[in-house]
Each structure stands twice: as C-alpha cells, then as structure tokens.
UniProtKB/TrEMBL annotation:
Designated name of the protein: Lactate 2-monooxygenase
Organism in which the protein naturally occurs: Nocardia macrotermitis
Catalytic residue positions: 287
Protein origin, superkingdom: Bacteria
Cofactor annotation: FMN
Domain FMN hydroxy acid dehydrogenase per the UniProt entry, residue ranges: 19-391
Length: 391
C-alpha cells in the first residue's frame, strides 16, 4: 500500500527537534531557490522556454480551469487504504509518475543522470533518459530501475538504430521518440547568454560513445581539442530530422521489440496516425513550452487526444505538472501517467541526489495525501466524475 504521504510525518517529527527542511516544499519554491542560487547559464537552460514563454505559462494555468470534487468517508484517508501503483506500457510503477527526459544534466550536477536513475529506482517511479544525456546509456541503465529511453531521431537511420539497440541492450523498457523537436525552438534566455551546451560538447555523451557516430570521425574526439571540435560539428550535422513521417515508426519497430511511445503530440489526428503506424503510447506534450510559443496548453489538448486514441494505445501527459492535484487532474482527463520535469532538475542543481529525491518525494506525498483526502484509493478511481470545469 502507498506510504508516500508519510513524508510529511517525517518533517513534522523532525520539527519537534528544531530541524526544518533544507529545501523548499513546493515546485514554485524550488524554482525560486534555483533562480537565486544556480549558475545563470544552468538556470536559463532549465527554466527557459520559447519566445515570450506564453505557452509555458499556459501549461500551468490550464490546470486552474479544472477543480477536483473530493468525496468523503470513502475509506481512503489512511495510507493503508491507498495503492498508487500502475502499469504503463508494460512497466510497473509505484505511482503514475516518471521523470521527464531532460538533457545536459552536467550543467546541474556531475553524473546527474545516474543520480536521477538511483533515486527513481529507490522510489519505484519511472525515469525517461534523454538522448541528450551527459552520461552514456549503459552507465545510466546499470544504475536505473524502471526506465525508458527517449530518442531524438537523428537524420541518419543507422545512428538512430544504434542508439535504440544500445538502449534496448542496456535494459530500457520502452522507447519514447520525441516528435516535436526536429530542430531547436527560439529560446531567448539561452540566446541572450550565447549558450548552446552541445557546442561545448556537453549533452552529447551518447553520440561520443556510439560506434556508428565514432566511425564518422577521422580522429577520436578524446585525442585533441580539434578532434572534439570536429566531433561537435559532426553532431550539429546529424541532430534533428525534418523528413520523418508516421510511417517511419515501422522502421523503429524493426529495431526493437520494446513498446514505442511518441512524445510531443497535441493534435488528435496526429495521435491517430501514430497509433495506426504502431505506437503503443502517446505522450501529450508541448515540450514544456520550449518549442512553439503560443501553442495550445498541453492539458487542453489531452481530452481530445484521449478520445482519438480510445483503447488502442495508452496516453501519458507532460508539460505543466507541479503538484499532486495536477497529477490527479491529468489522470482524471485520461492520462495513464505523467512525466515530471523542471522541479526535480532544480533539486538536482541545488542539492544533487538529495535534491532530486526531495523534489520527487514532495510531488508523491502531495499526490498520495490529495488522493486520500479526495476519496480516491487508486489511480483508476480518477475519471471525469471527480472534476468540475471552471471554463
């Protein structure tokens, strides 16, 4: 049975001895502390979104248009009455939460991906590892519990296949191919700092360690600064793929037997096409507002995508989740699980492994307590009947 809500008991009991948490107890607080304490480049990379950042703001504001209607005396207010576990794309999780794929974690903490892997394994939630990681696939896989691999499909199919096969061999349980990033969005915060980490050979560890990528290089990148510069330029020429179409999922299915989810879907017709092409999952997402400013809030897109997919595939959600009630709203609107991003990244930058653990425990405790107080024993209890729209 769920016990995530016990986190608050730990805090209050420690408070009797005058011990208070080192880190803020909300996603908003973590962001505020990160803005104050992190290196400006690192904070801008995590916090920044596209253009005027209207879509990033819309993602969080969209939750305000839905309100939960708690039910009383349902036998769920105690932890023994709740079980938050789910199975998504064949992966069993202790709660319907996975860490969203965030790249270049070395900007926040050395070996950041491994720290996230260790924490998610401890808590029993999922991890989605970014292609743009600072730590090679195999090292992260060895430390992880239930993890999926996120593919930025390069414009070289042989390289894409190698990345997928490496992830499969390293123990990934699903492949999440991101559809909304054939190129970079217009991100003023990074532009004002003149900072794109990949040009500094950061966040390309999976390429530098890949045999297909290395075969394209005249000189191993570790031999000299010039060789590394040429490796970076080679990466620039390979990142992103504007030619992909839904039918290309058939190619991906030839490379792995793992379930495939497509991330970055907002239009119901796109969802139908991806499922028709073999996707087992759809992740409704606008990349946290980092790609197309002025695009629809991800939560507003969720119900139509759920209706379009029906029972042919599982729908997940990301972009804007900040609280336990946000998770509940997304699940009530039809998501099977959520991907949670920026707050744990701030925690990583502030306190390393402990910061990631803290940020995730805050979300999970909030979710656990809020479900119990709303009369919901299991994620399956969350449906449209627990919501009221305030539109």
């Amino acid at each position: 049975m769920s016990s995530f809500a016990d986190f608050q008991n730990e805090i209050y009991l420690a408070g009797l001895s005058g011990v208070v948490p080192d880190l803020p107890m909300s996603a908003e607080g973590l962001e505020r502390r990160a803005r104050e304490q992190l290196d400006a480049v690192a904070y801008a990379y995590v916090a920044g979104s596209a253009s005027a950042e209207r879509t990033a703001a819309a993602n969080t504001a969209a939750f305000d248009r839905h309100r939960l209607v708690p039910r009383m005396w349902r036998g769920t207010s105690g932890a023994d009455g709740r079980d938050l576990s789910v199975e998504v794309l064949g992966t069993k999780l202790a709660a319907p939460v996975l860490t969203a794929p965030i790249g270049v974690l070395e900007l926040l903490r050395e070996q950041g991906e491994k720290l996230v892997a260790e924490v998610t394994a401890e808590l029993g939630v999922g991890m989605v590892l970014s292609t743009a990681a600072s730590t090679p696939i195999e090292e992260v896989g060895a430390a992880a519990g239930a993890w999926w691999y996120q593919l930025y499909w390069p414009n070289d199919h042989e390289l894409a296949r190698s990345l997928v096969e490496r992830a499969t061999a390293a123990g990934a349980r699903a492949i999440v191919v991101t559809a909304d990033t054939p190129g970079m969005g217009w991100r003023p915060r990074d532009l004002e700092l003149g900072h794109l980490p990949f040009l500094q050979a950061k966040g390309i560890a999976n390429y530098l360690s890949d045999p297909v990528f290395r075969a394209k290089l005249a000189t191993p990148p570790e031999e000299s600064e010039e060789a590394m510069r040429m490796a970076v330029l080679t990466w620039v020429g390979l990142f992103g793929n504007h030619t992909l179409r839904p039918a290309d999922l058939g190619r991906l299915r030839e490379w792995t037997e793992l379930p495939i989810a497509v991330k970055g879907v907002l239009h119901p017709d796109d969802a139908r096409e991806f499922v028709d092409a073999g996707a087992a999952g759809i992740v409704v997402s606008n990349h946290g507002g980092r790609q197309v400013d002025g695009s629809i809030a991800a939560l507003d897109a969720l119900p139509e995508v759920v209706a379009a997919v029906g029972d042919r595939a599982e729908v997940l959600f990301d972009s804007g989740v900040r609280t336990g009630s946000d998770v509940m709203i997304a699940l009530a609107l039809g998501a099977k699980a959520v991907l949670y991003g920026r707050p744990w990244a701030y925690g990583l930058g502030l306190a390393g492994r402990d910061g990631v653990r803290h940020a995730l425990r805050v979300l999970l405790a909030d979710l656990d307590a809020s479900m119990g107080l709303s009369g919901c024993a299991r994620p399956a209890d969350l449906d449209g009947g627990v919501l009221r729209s305030t539109r």
